[in-house]
Write a structure and sequence with these properties.
Blueprint: E1 6-10, H1 14-26, E2 30-34, H2 37-46, E3 51-55, H3 63-72, E4 79-83, H4 86-95, E5 99-104, H5 109-119, H6 144-157, E6 163-166, H7 173-182, E7 191-195, H8 204-209, H9 226-229, E8 234-238, H10 248-257, E9 259-260, E10 269-270, E11 274-279, H11 283-288, H12 294-300, E12 303-306, H13 317-327, E13 333-334, H14 336-344, H15 350-364, E14 369-370, H16 377-381, H17 389-409, H18 414-421, H19 425-434
Parallel strand pairs: 1-2, 1-3, 3-4, 4-5, 6-11, 6-12, 7-8, 8-11, 13-14
Antiparallel strand pairs: 9-10
Length: 443
């Protein structure tokens, strides 16, 4: 951009302010920030600002009041509002006080940049993958969805905000959690993983928070617990959707206060822990059906990354298969026909299934070349014929048309269009870029 434009970020949460600042600064904007609407008004009176990105729910002057105050003074600066609560979404739509758009938390970073650029009449700028090679240790990705996901994760890694990873089982959530930790300011401290579904409900509290000697039968010695082990580092809570309901208030309290109480003790310990949680469940549905606390969901769901299934990132299949063969210590390789079969398979078990099959082939194949007959019979039996180039083109044209129609029906609102199509906002943003759909020219 010819002249550096300033964006004012208004949010009472320092983690959000830091995150937005990092993302917008990386895109070439100068970023100012305020704690609430009162500070925002004061800054707008003194500074030249091109756009405001403001949270709605804040102490002091909230986002709606802030917008009213600015409009009352005659200032027509573009406002992008952010909300974590669906009820406020309707209020924003009804009030229409001049806000150019709104985003729902967890923020989609692509959507944030696109919204800022569009409303400042700037040309779209695709997210460039600029990650040092040493940061990608043990990470294999060649597909655009995964490269963009890694770029966003890399940008977020140095913030202190909690992160929620979603996606089908076996997509690589633990690998992404490790990537985030390694590239964070906490990398010199431990990454402590715990699988919430693998520990009996009556023991998980002691596992997380520790226990005193004699706190329960079998507690023959004191234990620090995973939170204290992760002090200064990162705690990876895998399968968070399976956490027992009676333990969720205790976890919420730790996230809010930074203090834990070991089982059998009335003493509190302060801990400095960043939480990365993961689940293959739809936590929004779990909340609606009262199996997961809504306040805990919002505390964890500040930034969310959805890892696409392997069938949606075909470009990753062969690099991953070769990586797993190399990791097994074998010089073996897949034949061209075997590679075609791997790429055509739907991989219901995702990357974990691919790793298992690659390792199986490395052990059982008698020759250096892995042929189709060396693959599991089920893999070959359910493999559909490889589509022709014309068929692929026709499918892509149909997909582009469906996305275009959904955007027209929702007047260019990506969030609503994604809901209409049954895909994620991140996915539709990627598809808009892939097919070069000009949202600004939609009728």
């Amino acid at each position: 951009m010819p002249d550096t434009l300033s964006v004012l970020v208004v949010d009472d949460d320092p983690r959000h302010r830091e995150l937005y600042q990092n993302i917008l600064a990386d895109a070439g904007f100068q970023v100012l920030h305020a704690l609430d609407g009162n500070e925002g008004v004061a800054i707008l009176e003194k500074e030249s600002v091109a756009m405001v990105v403001s949270d709605i729910c804040m102490p002091g002057m909230d986002g709606i009041s802030f917008l009213k105050q600015v409009r009352k003074s005659g200032n027509t600066i573009p406002f992008l509002l952010v909300t974590a609560y669906p009820a406020v979404r309707d209020a924003v739509a009804a009030l229409k006080l001049g806000a150019v758009d709104y985003l729902e938390k967890p923020i989609d970073l692509d959507e944030l940049l696109v919204a800022v650029r569009e409303n400042l009449n700037l040309p779209s700028s695709p997210l460039l993958v600029n990650i040092p090679s040493e940061a990608l240790k043990e990470v294999v990705a060649m597909s655009n969805p995964m490269l963009q996901l890694l770029q966003q994760s890399y940008q977020v890694a140095k913030s202190e905000t909690n992160i929620l990873l979603t996606g089908e089982s076996g997509t690589g959530k633990e690998v992404l959690a490790s990537f985030i930790h390694r590239n964070s300011n906490r990398s010199s401290r431990p990454l402590i993983p715990i699988n919430c579904a693998a520990i009996p409900g009556n023991l998980i509290a002691a596992e997380l928070f520790g226990h005193t000697k004699g706190a329960f039968t079998g507690a023959n010695h004191e234990r620090k617990g995973r939170f204290r082990e992760a002090d200064g580092g990162t705690l990876f809570l895998d399968e968070i959707g399976d956490m027992p309901a009676d333990l969720q208030p205790s976890l919420l309290r730790v996230l809010e206060t930074g203090k834990i109480s070991p089982v059998g003790s009335d003493r509190e310990h302060s801990v400095d822990v960043r939480v990365v949680a993961a689940t293959n469940k739809d936590l929004q549905t779990e909340v609606e059906e009262r199996r997961f606390r809504e306040d805990l969901y919002y505390r964890l769901n500040i930034i969310a990354f959805n890892i696409p299934p392997l069938r949606e990132r075909v470009d990753d299949i062969l690099p991953l298969a070769k990586y797993f063969l190399k990791k097994s210590g074998t010089p073996k390789r897949f034949s061209p026909v075997a590679e075609q079969i791997l790429c055509a398979y739907s991989w219901p078990g995702n990357v974990r299934e691919l790793a298992n099959i690659s390792q199986r082939c490395a052990i059982l194949t008698p020759s250096e070349v892995i042929l189709p007959e060396h693959l599991p019979t089920g893999l070959i039996r359910v493999t559909p014929p490889t589509p022709s180039a014309n068929r692929t083109k026709t499918m892509e044209e149909a997909e582009r048309q469906a996305i275009n129609d959904a955007l027209k029906a929702t007047k260019g609102n990506r969030t609503k269009a994604a809901d209409l199509l049954g895909i994620s906002r991140r996915n539709i943003v990627y598809k808009i870029k892939k097919y070069e759909i000009d949202v600004s020219n939609l009728p």
